[in-house]
Amino acid sequence: MSLQIKAFEQDYARFFAEDDLQGNAFYLNQLPTTQVECILKIKSDVMLSGLPYFVGAFNYLGSKLDYNELSMNEGVNFKKGHTITLGLPLAIALSGERVALNLLQQSTRISTFTQQFVKAAEGSNIKILDTRKTTPGLRILEKYAVRVGGAHNHRFSQSDAWMIKDNHKTFFGGLGPAWKYFQSMQTFYQNTIVEIHSLDELKMAFELGITHVMLDNFLPADIKAAVAIKKSGVTYEVSGGVKLDNIKDYLIDGVDAISIGALTHSAPHIDLSMKIAAPNKNTSWLK
Fold first, then answer.
1. Do the beta carbons of residue 196 and residue 205 sit within 8 Å?
2. Ranges in the chain annotated CATH 3.90.1170.20
3. Could you confirm whether 281 is annotated as catalytic?
4. Which CATH code fits 2-117+268-286?
């Protein structure tokens, strides 16, 4: 976990700066450091994820939580009412609780939602992908949650792979000139994905030798028509308009992947909380 804390040190510093821990040194110095029992309460049916970030937040403040002792809970489906117990110094538990829970909750809601899409696509050979429609500053956590939920990551940044979108084509004067521009970047190992909006444009992409195609907002009937002319070695990604209640219509043989921005930008709320057990072990108030 020390490597994880080091890698995200600047992020944790930013997260805790929002809580203004440095604003009242007297309060921080007076908080007891007594070791207390903390109960993580799961208040929704979830696939729990984000525990590395949850643990890292407390350890950034100086605790010595061992992630290995909690790791068996990562990626596990829990019913509402399940609890997980951990030990923390009171000062760190109180100071880190909100940040740690916010990170855990954000990751868990995404993994829970993602798992529903993955299960809906079971039996097909189609991969479920995320997009770059993530919360600024939380992309790594959110894409991590997608992976825990059983789906696959698309690009992490604009330059992981080039993507020729409608705005590129508008500016450069069409698919051909836009493709020529990106080819001039001379990045030998970098793939280029092209957003396609019609069957005619798809045929033009084949003529240009494009192999990674995103069929944008294609209706199922149009996707079937695109599959009928698919070239060997070409990858079809479908994007736009795919939801849990219609995904079955898009599970068409010949499609390789479906990318869904909603995995990260519209995952439903889930509820988690953390309670500190009273020193006398009377925990009736937790109910």
1. yes
2. 2-117+268-286
3. no
4. 3.90.1170.20
